[in-house]
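Q: I have 311 residues here and want to know how they pack in 3D. Can you give me a structure?
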Amino acid sequence: MAGPAVWRAYNQCLPGWARYQGANGPLQHVCNVAVMFASLWPAGQRRGMMVFTRGDTDMRLMLLALSLIATPLAAQQPAMTAPAGVAAPGYVANRPPLALLRLLPPPPEAGSTEEQADKFLYRQSRRGIGRPLWQQAVAQLSVTSPSFVKTLSCALGATLTPQTTPATMTLLRRAGADLARGVNAAKDFYKRPRPFTTDNGKACDPDAAVDGGKALGFAYPSGHSAVGWLWGLILADVRPERSAALLKFGKATGDLRIACRVHWASDVTGGRLMATALYQQIADAADYKADLLKAKAELSLAPVPEGCPAS
């Protein structure tokens, strides 16, 4: 059976509903997908320290759930060849974190034109508090959220589930393991404060109002922006005909972090830069090319998501 950490991830999906309906309730498939997305990130950090903290399910929890990628939640045996709770390596796992850190330029210097632009855009973002982009950002604070999963599935034109798209999930997870190391290294190295800490401003993430937002960690680069852009690039390799929609998804993932007021605009740009540079390295890996073929084959049979906005 899945361990307690996995059930915790499951219970954090659609709070309340999953707990009251149990593993066999009508929302089981939704929460299975939430746990699947929780499994895409390696251990050690939370949202602020890498990509997601607090309600997003911490990264250690996500790693423990990775055996669910190719199997239903209650599966008795993990489908991966790696031992339970141990992640398969990333595609450039041999690269030290410092080498990944070098993929990213430093954040704007104090007093620079770029920093002034960041501050201006942050001040302007006050106008969006409570408005549609703000609400979208709230709905996508976590990559385990049904909103995030649905938005990505719609961009891809295929419903992502642990049962029907395990190869695609493996592709994203392994690339995510590489990205996590690079983003973690950059956040720890630059230690850039979040924008709301400079003026005690309002942000769409509830953690921003608790203990100075410490649970969110450092700002540069934006992990959400990096993962959205990297997944967009990778899934565009899988389905080139969906490239425009997938890159739109990737860009929007970062833009919502500005609307949420938890990142400077240059944090979001930095996330995309790191993701692009990392993608160029990953794309040359033989393992990536092999996994890409598997993902292409399974997505040709994946169901089309319902209820997507007209493109």
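Q: Anything worth noting?
A: The domain at 90-299 is CATH 1.20.144.10 (Vanadium-containing Chloroperoxidase; domain 1). Residues 1-86 have pLDDT under 50 and may be disordered.
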